[in-house]
């Protein structure tokens, strides 16, 4: 059976989700800066590597009976379907994940599953990454591969310019850094909207670029993501529609 190029699955897993969500508002004791809004959004995705590829993805976040939140990402394409979830609590402006699940199924790619279970009393993580076991101690600020994206969105909302995250990756902790590059106006199916442009920081010799655009008017919803691989392959996602706090996104009024 023919395998799809590894970067494709990585892109969907990281980017289409990337996606960065908002949570429903918590108790009144939480400050306005830390309050979060429920959201759901749809994106279209394109891959340019010889033959154009198109796919779609959705993201949602829901309050559970036990007071935790379930953050869900799904993508559908002719190559593969992906479902990724993170169950987490939002505590004093910080995402505190408890379980993470990832499943990829496709006709031209082998099925893959990943799981992480976090025991914060012992600051320990267990699970599996495809055919590898996960068993390691984690710092108090550790994030799973999905929850850190929520933290990034919120930190940008708070005005931070440089963000550092300790993300569980396979059986190790990966240090990820992001930096705000400035403001930029984007035009798309939603019209024209002001955004904050963010870059994933990599070593100077790394020939890979990841850029993201977030819209302050829509609770810092991700509007666009661009990833360029070292071989020149371009991956992009673009926002098509969304609801924030139950309401469809609207263009900001003209000044």
What does this structure look like?
This protein has 255 residues and is mainly β. Helix content is 8%, strand content 54%. The protein has two helices and 15 strands. The protein has helices spanning 6-14, 147-157, and strands at residues 39-48, 53-63, 69-76, 80-91, 94-106, 112-119, 124-129, 132-137, 162-169, 172-188, 191-201, 209-215, 221-228, 234-244, 247-248. It has a 15-stranded antiparallel beta sheet that branches. A hairpin with a 2-residue loop joins strand 10 (172-188) and strand 11 (191-201). The N and C termini lie far apart (56 Å).
Largest sheet: 15 strands, antiparallel
Gross geometry: globular
Q: What is the helix content?
A: under 10%
Alpha carbon gap, first and last residue = 56 Å
Share of residues in strands: over 45%
Question: What low-confidence regions span 5 or more consecutive residues with pLDDT below 50?
Answer: 1-33
Radius of gyration computed on alpha carbons: 18 Å
Report the total helices.
2
Total strands = 15
